[in-house]
Amino acid sequence: MRTDTPQAIRLSDYRPPAFLIDEVALTFDLHPTATRVTARLQVRRNREHSEPLRFNGERLKPISVAIDGRVLSDGERTIDDEGLTIPSAPDAFVLETEVEIDPENNKALEGLYMSGGRFCTQCEAEGFRKITFWPDRPDVLSRFTVRVEADRSFRHLLSNGNLIEQGELEGGRHYAVWNDPFLKPSYLFALVAGELDVLEDSLVTMTGRTVELKIFVDPGMAPRAAYAMDALKRSMRWDEEAFGREYDLDLFMIVAVRDFNFGAMENKGLNIFNSSLLLADPATATDADFERIESVVAHEYFHNWTGDRITCRDWFQLCLKEGLTVFRDQSFSADMRGHAVQRIKDVKALRARQFAEDQGPLAHPVRPSSYLKIDNFYTATIYEKGAEIIRMLKILLGAEAFRAGMDLYFERWDGHATTVEAFIKCFEEASGSDLSHFFAWYEQAGTPRVSLESQYDEAAKTLTLNFAQETPPTPGQPVKQALPIPIAFGLLDGEGRPLRFEHDGEPQDETVIVLDQPQASITLTGVDRFPVISALRGFSAPVVLTTDLEPKDKYVLLAADPDLFNRWEAGQELARDLILRRAAGSPDEVNEERYADALGRALSDQSADPAFKALMLALPSEPDLALVMSPADPQAIHEARDALRTRLSVHLESQLRELHNGLQDLGEFSPDAEGAGRRALRNAALDLLLANPRSDNAAYAHGHFEAAGNMTDAMAGLSALMQVGGEAFGQALADFYERWTSEPLVIDKWFAVQARDPSETAIGRVMGLTAHPAFDTKNPNRLRALVSTFANFNPARFHDPSGAGYRFLADQILAVDRFNPMIAARLVDPLGGWRRYKPELGALMRAELERIAATAGLSKNVYELATRALA
Ligand code: PHE
Ligand code: ZN
């Protein structure tokens, strides 16, 4: 156990910075193991106080510290593990520091490090302090000039802003000087140096300015950046049209790197991407990859306004940039790919990640009030629930007032670091509404449970809806208040026809009510026929809704709800109940038959979008089911779900084969929504067909795998063969590996598919793969492909009753924590839900968490998550 219990940082302790830095000139003399960083800062005391100057700095080898040209003696400044202190500094002065750092041996991938022989940086949230002494907090905004010097073999020398000078130096070296005219905090600083290929394009903005666009990638990979470039141009155009936001520099650059802790980073004018979220072509990337790339390129680009031009005052305000930017990228993707399909995918992800987080010991508000390591708060709650809050705001205020609030926010806060309160105030002012009650969505953790009961009075033609809400306790928040919950709904009759009604005297097809009390009752009039209620349309709020709808009502919704989200949702609820009945040992065979028939009808609906049908065809996932079974029994869930899938496969066999045959790609591959939707449906049909791995089906899967002309189909074939198992799967894996050995992003997929294999022998194979020559714990993508995929997407094996899955994960966490705490901490989550599982399993999970927490020399990151998970 650590003896020095780390100190929590609290929102209530926020104080403005003691010193500000108006301008900075940095010089990097790059060398892989000994880089010199010289910093010349224009420092100014912030208001009147007599506090010492205290700048952050970690893992820096100090060379010299000088004020106004005079080198400070040891007595005039102290340097410890956390930074530089100057007890008595003048009110305004030039601080010059020189330090040495070692990028080559930086395996935490934070600060300046090397990836694939190239220099790159990652500074969010607190990486800049590993580069130079600095008040490393987002409310210190400065103008940066950066000079980069390196051997000429590092051909491209990049940093933020505009290139103002470059040239040759003696000894085979060269240099470049960059100036960023916009104020920015240190976390948005970036530098890249190396031999890269570049894909170039340009865009004329809404005011007629030409912006140069450059995407830098590993040599030979430029063609694979074409899709990202296309997505970038569409994002730029979309932000002009949807939010009136124009790009502000004359140059926008993206660099792809192989070793990256997260997805991508919005550094001003120089985004850095994990190569898995940038490089794609039909042969090596799946449709899901293309879709992710489109959304992440958009996300990082949109940060230019929501994140860079306006940033966060402190890290408690992280959702200010992340929730808002996710909302913006989701809106963009919906416009690109269809609103209903996008909404379903976003809600699936929200439930799988955020609802799970809310139910466990790591539950926290969208705006937390304390932390040990901010790196641990890049969570689904901050991102995805943060986006849901913005979405509700738009529903509550209406599109016009929402846009007016955004406009005011951009106008008022441009060039500043601000807070969630200041953001919400813009909407209050622009719309004239009081949002004080709404603010609780940011401060209260937990997923509200909403129940709906209804009474229809046939004689009076009235329908009474009784709503109630309750939010279960979460750590540190035992008592919850009622939240304002927008609930969109409409009515259908028993035949599935839309049914009009009157609410407040107005005839309507659909309406939104706001449930802001623990209970509320509303009466609709003019309801001519017995109604089926379609509630929470489009998932209008991030809540768990239970209704008194009977299965027959849900079948009506499944067949005919004009709200496609609820059509999909009805199918999911019906399937979920059938699986849970099987898991409890009492299958409802009559309704399983009925469900299979209903699914068959949905599949033959010619007017429906194939992408939508593909979603209809997928049963709720095992992790989703574990959230609604108490206590959760992953083995029982796996078997029950499989059994239902097998029944559906047998029942729908001819239809599935027809779909599969009828949807082959005819023309050239196109990654757009339409082509992807057809492939998704075709591959979903194959997947369900193989739930019955009879030999003719196995041969069919084999044929699909062999004939695959793109990575989407190849992976679908491989997954289908996984269901067959044995020699068929083994041979396909071997062929696949051999074909793609030299393509790291494809080899990641090869690891991941094996990590997902639920068969009994798979756990041994997964452990064995850690000794495979291509396995590399230091590369986050490779580690995630095997270890995270196993722990998050293979519940049947991860929760093996022997505890071997848990032990494997804990071993990996401890090993990785020695060099990359950020990544190690992200692996803790699957153990966090231990209280929700069967007691035998929960005890084994807990024991592994205890083993982790008791390990000497643990990082703050892992320490925080393991102890919170145990509390
Ligand atoms: N700010 C990045 C994003 O969401 C995420 C990130 C955080 C990347 C920290 C790296 C490190 O766009
Ligand atoms: Zn972001």
From TrEMBL:
CDD domains named in the record: M1_APN
InterPro entries reported for this sequence: Aminopeptidase_N-like_N, Aminopeptidase_N-like_N_sf, PepN_Ig-like_sf, Peptidase_M1, Peptidase_M1_dom, Peptidase_M1_pepN, Peptidase_M1_pepN_C, Peptidase_M1_pepN_C_sf
Documented EC number(s): 3.4.11.2
SUPFAM superfamilies tied to this protein: Leukotriene A4 hydrolase N-terminal domain, Metalloproteases ('zincins'), catalytic domain
Keyword field contains Hydrolase: yes
Domain Peptidase M1 membrane alanine aminopeptidase: 227-440
GO MF annotation terms: alanyl aminopeptidase activity; metallopeptidase activity; zinc ion binding
Cofactor(s) demanded: Zn(2+)
Highest taxon, organism lineage: Bacteria
Cited function: Aminopeptidase N is involved in the degradation of intracellular peptides generated by protein breakdown during normal growth as well as in response to nutrient starvation.
Family assignment from sequence similarity: Belongs to the peptidase M1 family.
Protein name as annotated: Aminopeptidase N
Source species: Phenylobacterium deserti
